[in-house]
Amino acid sequence: MNEISTPPSIIVGIDGSRAAIQAALWAVDEAVSRDIPLRLLYAIEPEIAKVPPDRAARKLAIAENAVRYAFTALEASEKPVKIEVEVVQDRAITALIRASASAEMVCVGAVGLHHIRPDRMGSTAAALAVSAHCPVAIIRGDNRRTGRQARWVVVDAEGSGDTDVALEAAFEEAQLRNAPLRAVARSVNGDSDCRIEVALDRRLERCRQSHPDVRVESAALRCGLLTYLEKNGRSVQLVVVSARNREHVEQLVGPMGNSVLHGAGCSVLVVDHQHS
């Protein structure tokens, strides 16, 4: 018997938190640009033991209210997006990873209802960043342009050519959000800044040709990525990193990274997941 394939969509994890609403609003442009639905996914944590019917009904009502609130916020954006809703009985991380198998992207708030400290990322977001089957966006703040100057999209271009997937994703995000793009890599083993930037420019050339409207520059870092973001985070709206660079992903989604990026309202997009 042939399996019924699930049409592609942008998935947003909804849990009733303000962070989830911000993630949904950020994700609208992703869905509109691809002409695919935006699906709001709420996971009701299953009970270990049998519970009274009124408790199960109360949990379902909470889920429906959270989804309705998100739906209303999206409608208020007045953007031409088809909104789908799904409420499942499952652990949130399990439901989102399963949904990621057929999704174009999964978007979640950096901090959910049960993780309100700025130095602590929601465990669901952190686990999803490394376990999903598609790009994962972890959203902080509303990421709207403030003032006259758009905030940067920064792409971590450190490493071998496999991070070119991250470069392409970063160009697409910069174009979608009408933002300038900066590709960064750390200077190591005595390499000069000029040599690093020339190498970056060479890798950027193909993407430049397919995205001629994106203003892009390269930069060699004398410090680590997290230190750079600590100094410049308020001018950055989104950091794009390859899932293959596990060290940088773990830094960005871990406690230190969340503490650094929280105040700046800087989001993270993890791409290039490889799963068998």
From TrEMBL:
Domain UspA, first and last residues per copy: 10-140
Coiled-coil annotated spans: none
InterPro entries: Rossmann-like_a/b/a_fold, Universal_stress_UspA, UspA
Family: Belongs to the universal stress protein A family.
Name listed for the protein in its UniProt record: Universal stress protein
